[in-house]
Amino acid sequence: MNKAAQAARATVSGREHGTNKGGVKLFLWQKPASSGPKLGTVLFVHGSSMASQPTFDLKVPGRPDSSVMDWFSARGFATWTMDHEGYGRSDKSRPINCDIANGADDLAAGTDYILKTTGAKKLLVYGISSGALRAALFAQRHPERVARLALDAFVWTGEGSPTLAERKKKLPEFSSKNRRPIDRAFVHSIFERDHPGTADKATIEAFAEAIVALDDSVPTGTYVDMCSRLPIVDPAKISVPTIIMRGQWDGIAGVDDLVEFFKRLPNPDKQFTVMAGISHASFQQKNYLMVYHILHAFFSQPEPLYRG
Fold first, then answer.
1. d(CA 45, CA 282)
2. CA 230/CA 254 separation, integer angstroms
3. pTM of the full predicted structure?
């Protein structure tokens, strides 16, 4: 293995941080750029059913580059993620369901801390599933903090989503309480509902183990929002360069729904990509290195010199 490959597969030491959102404690996790000049600062935003580190800093024996934070760090990017209120190591004490708007508030507090701590001017923001909705709403509110925005497993109106159609059947239950239980079987169901076989068993097991080590329940707010309050984001108000990343087999959003959203994005610096062989949890799929490549290409893309 050459030195570049060794660097790319090295585990980067992380650092814990904390900030406050009106008295609510939020946990942040940082991994610095490990080689060469810093090419940008990436913020990864997690979804509805798991905290940040299982999603973005997962270690799986025999699966090289399993941590997307390590992979980007090895290529010159500073990487950050955070647990939203109600998840992981962040505060879980308030009697609220931690909806998408609350998640966008978390991102406002978290990015304020990151920008002040690092001196970065803007961030490269990636969100997956309800994390994509949180990230999009945050970018809508704070475009001055976002250099580029990646929305993976995103949904706009919910039209054409078999996953949400099934989830709506339990909407009264989700609406009646602030938290819902999760366990290993639930994590397995994420990989079975759309197109079984897109992720290997060892990765699913490691993912499930990391998730339940931090949480045995998670907030219901994002589920309630995605089942009953879409659309939450207005594409016409997202002014930053944006990529829509949709797994071939993902049941969260129909292609037509995403195309209509994409058409309304005002910035001409935008992309739409369909990821072959991917269902929902992109970084835990067999084709994860392809996902990294797509995201890296967008985040490292030079700004256009001519705009007409």
1. 13
2. 14
3. 0.95
